[in-house]
Specification:
alpha/beta; eight-stranded parallel beta barrel; 34% helix; 18% strand; disordered N terminus
Length: 324
């Protein structure tokens, strides 16, 4: 894969940045330094401070943020569209932003957890065509992050969002969803493409969601079939909703390490951690070790996160030298 898409450790959600001095100020440098010290290589520009790329103002601010993070040695992924359901009045009026002048820019996450319906897949395919108009043949990445197999869509009995398990999983339905996405969307991309899923296996009672390895295996299989970079988002935070409190603690160092090495064992080409600082979702409560101002609120968990990422950084070059 392209040199700038070398095995990366990515962090979802960045703390709030100060816009002064083109973002190149003491507060922001401290935030970037703290992320680098934690072993992060790439910042996913999502979360509470997401800039929706549907105005020129937001695009230019994002350009400045990309350039700032690169000046601090961090690459970036931009969240390109904010609402597939509002597709025609949102992102398409502006078109795919051209960040080809920005070093350290890996590419776009276009949508997080799209459903399997034909309308959504068609709209994501349209986004791929827009992407091609700007980036065809380049090493800039097109990506959507798919639903995990424990989502209710793939369960034979009704469950809450994180309630699915291998005993109620319709494996054929999950595989069909991933294949449909590859056929209808990923196959349209004329450039670098990532096949991504999130799978958060850590429960409060120290048990594991037993669909985790299936998610890794299915994503890697189809990534190989369609010539894509295999990516998984892993769990580094706790989160809860009004009707589900089964994942509301931060994983331990051992649990983070287990996830990371399982991903490597299945041949993932990169990983990301959800989430570094709190997300912007109004329906969920997040438990992170860094707050939205960039303050470390749980030093032990930050140190655990750092230890695991430091290990990954030490073996990344050797790992990526092999064909998994």
């Amino acid at each position: 894969y392209a040199a700038n898409n070398f095995f990366n450790v990515i962090a979802w959600n960045y703390p709030a940045l100060d816009e002064s001095d083109e973002y190149n100020n003491e507060k922001n440098i401290a935030i970037a330094t703290q992320m680098k010290n934690a072993g992060i290589k790439v910042v996913n520009l999502t979360g509470k401070n997401l800039l929706v790329l549907n105005t020129q103002e937001a695009i230019e601010k994002t350009r400045k943020i990309i350039k700032f993070f690169w000046s601090q040695g961090l690459k970036t992924v931009a969240f390109a569209a904010n609402n597939v359901e509002n597709f025609n009045t949102d992102f398409t009026q502006i078109g795919t932003p051209d960040f080809s002048d920005c070093e350290g820019f890996i590419g776009f996450l276009h949508w997080d957890e799209p459903t399997e319906d034909d309308t959504t897949m068609s709209k994501l395919a349209d986004l791929a065509i827009q992407f091609n108009n700007v980036y065809a043949g380049s090493d800039v990445t097109y990506m959507n992050n798919l639903l995990p197999s424990y989502a209710p869509y793939f369960q034979t009995t009704e469950t809450n969002w994180w309630g699915g398990s291998s005993t109620t999983l319709d494996k054929a339905a999950f595989k069909a969803y991933v294949k449909e996405y590859c056929d209808k969307v990923l196959s349209q991309v004329k450039g670098e493409k990532w096949l991504s899923v999130d799978s958060y296996p850590i429960n409060n009672d120290y048990s594991l969601h037993d669909t985790f390895l299936l998610d890794l295996g299915v994503i890697k299989y189809y990534a190989m079939q369609y010539g894509a970079h295999a990516h998984v988002a892993l769990q580094s935070s706790g989160f809860s909703t009004a009707d589900n409190d089964t994942k509301s603690r931060i994983p331990t160092e051992a649990e983070m390490r287990m996830q990371a090495y399982a991903a490597l064992a299945f041949g993932m080409d990169s990983i990301s951690w959800f989430t570094y600082s709190p997300s912007g979702s109004g329906s969920e409560t997040f438990y992170t070790f860094v707050d939205n101002d960039g303050n470390i609120t749980d030093q032990d968990s930050y140190d655990a996160f750092t230890a695991v990422n430091t290990e990954l950084g030490a073996i990344g070059a050797v790992y990526s030298a092999f064909d998994w």
